[in-house]
Amino acid sequence: MGSPCHFALFELQPGFRLDLQQLAVRYRELAKAVHPDRFADASEREQRLALEQSARLNEAYQTLKSAPRRALYLLAIRGRELPLEATVQDPEFLLQQMHWREELEDLQDSADLEGVAAFKRRLKSAQEALDEGFAACWDEPARREEAERLVRRMQFLDKLVHEVRALEERLDD
């Protein structure tokens, strides 16, 4: 896991709900302080430490700003890591995934930019619902399986949103 914990780097309590703008502001402040360029005239050891701190800060920021990565990280610091590409033992969600994939293929075939925008809004709302569900249960040992199921769903949706953005860019060109 590497210490200190990602949340501690930003002086935050571990939790799922974060103010992402506040996180970004704090990241920029910290990044300036440890930027390797500031240590250009320092000893080799100080330069190496600055580089390590900068890398650790970047990793922490990338993890905390992404809802699925933050969720996985929270579960990990609670003592249970999920395999990154776990199969979803979740027939209802598997069916939903198939529908979304088919819809994405149809949108791609028809090059329907408005349809893509509407699809993206529906995915965003599905992501928000998952985020809320995870926020409500991640720290309750009795609801651990539910939290893990939600993280897997979050990972899938995150990947799908990236694919939709890529399609949008292709259609926009």
UniProtKB/TrEMBL annotation:
PANTHER family: IRON-SULFUR CLUSTER CO-CHAPERONE PROTEIN HSCB. Belongs to the HscB family. Co-chaperone involved in the maturation of iron-sulfur cluster-containing proteins. Seems to help targeting proteins to be folded toward HscA. The keyword tRNA processing does not apply. SUPFAM superfamilies: Chaperone J-domain, HSC20 (HSCB), C-terminal oligomerisation domain. InterPro entries: DnaJ_domain, HscB, HscB_C_sf, HscB_oligo_C, J_dom_sf. The keyword Nucleotide-binding does not apply. It comes from the Bacteria. Interacts with HscA and stimulates its ATPase activity. The lineage of its organism: Bacteria, Pseudomonadati, Pseudomonadota, Gammaproteobacteria, Pseudomonadales. This is Co-chaperone protein HscB homolog. Keywords: Chaperone. It holds the Pfam family HSCB_C. Residues 5-77 form the J domain.
